[in-house]
Every structure is written in structure tokens, then in C-alpha cells.
Amino acid sequence: METKFSAFTQTGGAVTLKQVLDQVGYQPWLWRILTFEATSLASSGLDVIDLECRAERAENGVEVNSIDLRELAGKIEQTINIHLVAYAASGKSVFVVQAFDSTEWEVSAEDSDAVAVGAFFRVREGVKNWSLRPNSPDDLDPSEGFDPPSSVSA
To answer: What is the Cα–Cα distance from 76 to 40, expressed in whole angstroms?
Structure first.
């Protein structure tokens, strides 16, 4: 199962990795950071270039537990591109979080893993409360209006 959603709220704020992981909650998973491109909060001390390089060089990604991943997420200001994969104790991939070009998030879960499915539905429910900006006019609720940017011709 998977869901995609905008990386921006209707007021222009960005949906952060921390917000997404807060919905996932603390899970007994080992995460692997396969792709990482982000900007850090100025006061965080996070060396994003180092992490980007480590993720790029590591054949199986940079391993991190749920606690450390959420700590990392709290230091990120903007997620540009990210690919995180969570593994259960069995070694099976059960949950994936991706961000694309600072515009869209995608979350997927292994249907046969109850913990992953629960996390997936928490994210999906959380998204409903974020007042997200539609990615395209097709994403709109038909009861809402859509005013395309002035640079878009009708």
C-alpha cells in the first residue's frame, strides 16, 4: 500500500520529515538512508553534506535506529530528496518514506506487516490534518475551487 501527498501546506509551509516520522511513531525497525539531500536548521550542527556523501557511498545505505532517525529529522529544515527504508527484525523491508524534489512525499508499507500497516494509516490520517496544497487540479476536492497561478494559461 502507498500514498503520495504534497510537500506543502495551503499556507506555503513545508511538510517536514519530522512531521512524517512523528506519525510513524517509534517502531522497532532498523532504517536505512539510501538517498539524502536536505538543508539543516542553522543551529543543529548537522553536516548534511557528510550525510549525503555517506548515503551515496554506502552500498546498502546508512543504518540508523528509529530514535536516531527522529533526532536527525528534528535537525532538518527542508527535505529535498530522501529515500528511507525500514526493516523489521526479520530483515524484511516493511516501510518506505520518500521525498521528491521538495514537492512530494510518498509513503508505502508492506501489507503483511501489522506494525507497518498501522504506521501507514497514522501517516495517512495525519496528512488529512495538514491542509496540504494539491499537487495538481486533479488532486482537489470537487467542492473546492482552484485558482491556477497567473503564469498558467487556461
So the answer is: 4
Q: Distance (Å, rounded) from C-alpha 128 to C-alpha 3? A: 12
Domain that holds residue 96: 2-130
Buried b or exposed e, range 72-108, using 16+ CB within 10 angstroms: bbebbeebbebbbbbebeeeebbbbbbbeeeeebebb
Q: Model-level pTM greater than 0.85? A: no
Structural domains of the chain, count: 1
What angle do helix axes 114-128 and 17-24 make, rounded to 10 degrees? Answer: 130
| Edge-to-edge strands, sheet with 30-40 | 2-6, 104-109, 93-100, 76-87, 30-40, 62-65
- Nearest partner of 21 among 112, 105, 81, judged by Cα: 105
Question: Has residue 23 been placed in a domain?
Answer: yes
* pLDDT tens for each residue of 76-110: 999 999 999 999 999 999 999 999 999 999 999 99
Which of 71, 65, 61, 56 is CA-nearest to residue 18? 71
| 121 and 2 Cβ atoms separated by less than 8 Å | no
